[in-house]
Amino acid sequence: MLNQNQLAEMLSTVNVEDLAREAGVSTKTIYRLRHQQHSPTLNTVQAIVDAVKKLKAKKPRKVAA
After folding, report:
1. Which has the least CB within 10 A, 7, 8, 9, 60?
2. If you count DSSP H runs as helices and E runs as strands, how many of each does the chain have, helices first?
């Protein structure tokens, strides 16, 4: 399980609007979690973690020339 610091760090690596849409939560929730001003439910954390993984999988990786 993630602690608040780990969750905040994870959230800083993705776009807020994309993450909120993918996780089914508001952008306000994402911002609150990024700044550790909110204690989410386990279901919310799971939805956000799943959404972060999905968004990172979609993100094209840079290829070295």
Report:
1. 60
2. 4, 0
Name the E strands within 1-65: none
What would the two tokens of residue 52 be? 């972060």
**Positive or negative: CA dihedral 34, 39, 40, 42:** positive
pLDDT in tens, 13-28: 999 999 999 999 999 9
Sign of the C-alpha dihedral computed for residues 46, 4, 28 and 30 taken in this order: negative
Question: Amino acid identity of 6?
Answer: Q
Instruction: Walk me through the domains of the chain, giving residue ranges and CATH numbers.
Output: 4-58 (1.10.260)
